[in-house]
User: What shape does this take?
Amino acid sequence: MLHDAHNHLQDDALEPHLPRIAEAWPGVAGASGLMVVNGTHPTDWPRIAALAERHAFVRPAYGIHPWDAGAPRPADWKEQLAAKLDADPRATVGEIGLDRWILEMARPDDPRLAGVRRASMPEQIEIFLEQLLLATSRDRAATIHCLHAYDDLLPLLRHRPLPARGFLLHAFGGPPGLVPELVGLGAYFSFNPSFLDPRKARQRDTFKLIPPDRLLCETDAPAMLPPQAWRTHKLPPSADGSPVNHPGNIEAAYAGLAALRGEDTASLAQRVAENFHRLFSAR
Ligand SMILES: [Zn+2]
Assistant: This one.
């Protein structure tokens, strides 16, 4: 029974393939494998709510992604977010976070950022904190994206109220030295199979250090493809030629993580399922 702790099933790139993915999913994941489907902006929240209604394996998460923090949003977006959380006890907050890569490292012509107005760090922090507060006040999990911004994120996590049940650092690629403090703050860490790329040794080494009760697995589909050799599920590229990841590749996350930690995949999956429910299940 495999759970995908983080993906974007509502994404346009997956839309044409939804029937195929839904059909493959129970086969991939056993009878009750779940996936947390993360919003990026109020415009995709209704699609996530509809997916959660249609598919028993979907757990909805609603949030504004740091890449969308510079886009126009409705004046009542916070009320909309609160309403989505209150309407469904299974709903959590995500994907929220901070990203300095888009501000300082991304190439101006990176196609993934075409049309994106890159919000400044103070703008990103303001929106992040509003969303974190909504998660905390309802004790729902918050799923956090942090790219080259741990110096900004850590002081916020240290000094602001956090969800009592904890939070997820998705595709954790932060400095390994931060792991003990983050664990103390309530962090869970999800392993993305793109870390199986030979060049990602630092991330793999970090995941050997994560305590067993804080591990999760994810795909981030349609983004972050596993290396070719690990792909068990394939989809054609999208219209603009960009590659599309299939959530079924969650198999690679479990197999790869078990191999690098020297564990048996079945017992790892059992433990990850317990972690998944402790963090994400309605109480
Ligand atoms: Zn994501």
Observations:
- The chain has a mean pLDDT of 95.
- DSSP finds ten helices and eight strands in the chain.
- Residues 121-137 form the longest helix (17 residues).
- The pocket of zinc ion is lined by residues 6, 8, 38, 95, 220 (CB under 6 Å).
